[in-house]
């Protein structure tokens, strides 16, 4: 569990660093045509934050992504040419993060549900397997004593 969260945190840090570095690149002739990419770029942010914070704290993941989008726009206002930062980008990033949060919660719920149903099926079939093992001739040897 710890190792998987560490891997997610490292991947998230690399993605966040790439996102921040791309936020300060001047796109020639954008003229508002990149709204789709702004939304799409924040979908993994929401998913990474849900993976790091947990499914129960989805609201914290969404709030943190809104703060991150606001910070990026404020930094662009300070360090980029006039007119490069836009308040609409905060809304677009929030929409992208909300899609990422919702998809991460949906996938996590689906995985938990399938794992629970698989465990329930194996518990039901476990009794049949145990009775088959008892009747098997190959299991007639004495069990090993592993209590040493």
Q: In a nutshell, what does this entry contain?
A:
This protein is an all-alpha fold and 148 residues long. It is built from 5 helices and no strands.
Number of helical stretches of at least 4 residues: 5
Q: What's the helix-strand series?
A: HHHHH
User: Quick check: average pLDDT?
Assistant: 81
Task: Name the poorly predicted regions.
Answer: none
Biggest sheet, open or closed, and with what strands and sense?
Answer: none
Class by SSE composition? mainly alpha
CA radius of gyration: 25 Å
* Overall 3D shape: elongated
SS strand fraction: under 5%
Beginning-to-end CA distance, first to last residue: 31 Å
Tally the beta strands. Answer: 0
Portion in helices: over 70%
Q: What does this protein look like?
A:
The protein is an all-alpha fold and 148 residues long. The chain contains five helices and no strands. It has helices at residues 2-23, 35-41, 43-53, 58-79, 87-135. The chain is elongated, with a radius of gyration of 25 Å. The two termini are 31 Å apart. The mean pLDDT is 81.
Which SSEs are present, and which pair or pack?
Blueprint (H helix, E strand, L loop, with lengths): L1 H22 L11 H7 L1 H11 L4 H22 L7 H49 L13
Helix pairs in contact: 1-3, 2-5, 3-4, 3-5, 4-5
């Amino acid at each position: 569990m710890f190792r998987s969260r560490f891997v997610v945190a490292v991947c998230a840090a690399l993605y966040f660093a790439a996102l921040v570095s791309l936020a300060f690149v001047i796109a020639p002739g954008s003229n508002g045509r990149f709204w789709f990419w702004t939304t799409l770029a924040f979908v993994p942010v929401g998913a990474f934050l849900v993976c790091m914070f947990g499914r129960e704290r989805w609201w914290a993941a969404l709030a943190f992504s809104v703060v991150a989008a606001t910070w990026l726009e404020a930094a662009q206002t300070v360090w980029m040419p006039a007119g490069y930062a836009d308040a609409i980008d905060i809304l677009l990033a929030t929409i992208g993060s909300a899609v990422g949060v919702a998809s991460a919660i949906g996938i996590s719920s689906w995985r938990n549900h399938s794992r629970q149903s698989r465990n329930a099926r194996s518990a039901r079939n476990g009794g049949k397997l145990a009775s088959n093992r008892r009747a098997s001739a190959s299991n007639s040897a004495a069990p090993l004593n592993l209590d040493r």
